[in-house]
Amino acid sequence: MSHPGTTGDYAIEVEGLTKHFGDLVAVDHIDLNARAGTVLGVLGPNGAGKTTMVRMLATLSRPTAGTGRVGGYDIIRNAPEVRSLIGLTGQFAGIDELLTGEENLRFIGRLLGMPTRDAKARARELLAQFNLSDAADKAAKAYSGGMRRRLDLAASLVGRPRILFLDEPTTGLDPRARGELWGLVRGLVADGTTVLLTTQYLEEADQLAHEIAVIDHGKVIATGTPTQLKAKIGGQSLRIQPEDHARLDDLLALVAERFPDLEPVVSAGAVTIGVNDEGVMPTLAADLRDRGIALTDFHLGLSSLDEVFLTLTGHRTETDDENEEAAR
Amino acid sequence: MTAATIEAPAPALGRPGLGATVSQTLSMAWRQMVRIKHNPFELVDLSLSPIMFLLLFVYVFGGQMAGSTSEYLQYVLGGLIAQNAIFLTMYTGTGINADLRKGVYDRFRSLPIARSAPLAGKIFADMFKQVWSILIMVLLGMLMGFELRSVGYAVLATLVLVVFALAISWISVLMGVVADSEEKVQIYAFVIIMPLTFTSSAFVDITTMPGFMQAWAKVNPVTHLSDAMRGLLSYGPISEPLMWTFVWAAAIFAVTAPLAMRAYKRKMV
Question: Cβ B112–A161 below 8 Å, yes or no?
């Protein structure tokens, strides 16, 4: 028997993938490819169809139309083969809170047919790799959010999957826990694992992905490498926060004067504008000093997802409240 | 970076065979047992209601029902065991419902394991609770003066109870898969189980019931199970109620297991 998975450059191939829930079109003719051994980032707001797409590729849900091949296997006709190649870490941890970390991993190992001793060894190995050895014998319900996500990721790796689906693996995590998880993902990719990562954070996609697909309302609206995308959307954003909240209007007036074409975003007492040229910073700083506007924040950062969407679609992400809901 | 090749991993590709399915079901059951180990209070919780029912039925109704509490105890223990076993199966459904909503089953379904293993494993593990409960009830009954027909028959009664519970658990699984909350599973179960157990020979001699009720009570599966338990543990005929108990178990399994599996597969929309 030939293994279609052993040939071809693409670990994930998606063509015209579509999913309807009644009248709702959750995923609308999505085409995607992930080269073996790379990270494909799928960037989009909540409700864009990311999870629905991942569920179809992980054989949890049947597409309404279109095809998907994972490791060369068709996600419908060869679902059992696909399952033996993949690992899945969902948005909501698929671990048993009553069981200890070690038991959770040992359980998956046993399910995968490992002899007890091997399952134990694999569990210990993963716990060490994920910096959870100290908590190995504690019930998972006592774990912090970051530890749970790490355990969940570890659970998806017990069978050494060649292709890994990470569905918003860091949503709701604090920056430190997020950084730790990124490190783990990089390690897996260095070992040759192909990763499909969905995220709401541009920074996450930028940090991890070799290629990014931006999706909105179930459709791919942009694809490219992080550099290409950033070039397309103006790349960076400048955040300016006056020390005195009362000076916000003066600041806005100045920004409007200097950048009449831009639409500044005001939030949390700060003004954010998209810039392509870092050279504006010194002149702007001088202007601010002249007008006596003292600052608590003045820095260039990567554009937020909101700004990316504003640029690509002309509308903002509409689901900020939901995002926070999901993070909880 | 050059493209890495995707190699087939060690686990066998394709659909798991019977041996693998059995082993996966046992692993699923292992998980449930470990849960009890970490939360032993569940067993106390499990024991409270049968103990309460046994004490209340015997010492409150006993004199009125059979002239003496000891005679009623000899009659009703089998019925109470049958009723308790049926109620216990409800927890199979609520447990599956909780796991389904929490995303634990998403993980299971993304693994190369048999589709039936998570459900079957849960049902299988819950049989431990059945054995535990019958043990508690028989022991408490004996403390209250119950005379056991024979230890061998008591073991047989336990086996019969487990077989029946294995079959009817699929009703609970079906409800657990279909319902959108644990509370709904409990409500469904309650409305079905309560009238079902009371319109049987579990607590009273059905010849005292009006004709139409008797007609139903005679075919009610709970009557057959109660009679079988009574026969094996206490007194009365054994083979006929036993036969009908198995007929009902087989019929219920044949109808509800495929329905539950179908509903479970449909969940994967």
Answer: no
